[in-house]
Design brief:
Helices cover 37% and strands 19% of the residues. The chain is an alpha/beta fold.
Length: 315
Amino acid sequence: MTKPPLAILLAAPRGFCAGVDRAIQIVEQALVKWGAPVYVRHEIVHNAHVVKRLEAMGAVFVEELTECPDDRPVVFSAHGVPKVVPAEAAARQMVYVDATCPLVSKVHAEAQHHARAGLHILLIGHAGHPEVVGTMGQLDPGSMTLIETVDDVNAFTPADETRLAYVTQTTLSVDDTKDIVAALRRRFPKMAEPRKDDICYATTNRQEAVKAIAAEAQLVLVIGAANSSNSVRLKEVAERSGAISAHLIASADNIDWAWFDNVTTLGLSAGASAPETLVQGVIAACRARFTVSVQEVVTAQEDVVFRIPRVLENV
């Protein structure tokens, strides 16, 4: 039988960002330098396929530093950690490498700068996300208030509305964050703002790429983990931007082919911690069932590269 046609609109940019590339390279180079096992506090990035590959190389993933022995190296994840974590590692005389994304570190530095100026900081983000936990952990308790929605803005009562600043999680929905920031500006016009948008270039670019394909596709699939904030946001962006349906999948194995009923155009993207092999796996699975044509829709070019820590250079 002749396979039905399927046009795939492939979003670009998609997949790994510079911060994720750097974090994975840090674990790989640490294994080369010190041998296995190398411990990693929290998933280095939010992707089970990446974690499984690094585990096969000798990485051991743990949730807390208390699970790590004193005599083995430990890597802190790309999402950032509260300042008490490296302080504890130093007190235990552990060898540690911080893989925090430089763009997350920028937010940490902004928050610390505002705190030194005596400002109370509003952090726009999602409760419980490792990046939010790490950012709030840069300052003393009570120095920062988490804002998740416009309702939170309206409910917040500051001690001094002239002594406020805001920062944001790097992986938020650009459109949602604009609404929250607008509400903050209306209520607190004297509030200090980031000199440059805290939402990272990769998050913004991937959301714009999904917007470019969503209206032309009956179905959009976003490859990424359910606990990956930027991946979840991509699915939401697809739904809001005209896709008839959108789903977040970990890999081709998670596809429900009933989703493809009456679908002639598929939009496909991947979150910033999803490897390109998973994208190609979805395309291959589609080719097994359809006569596939692929068109890459490019909305931005990315050439950002972050250096790994000096201790791992030239390994």
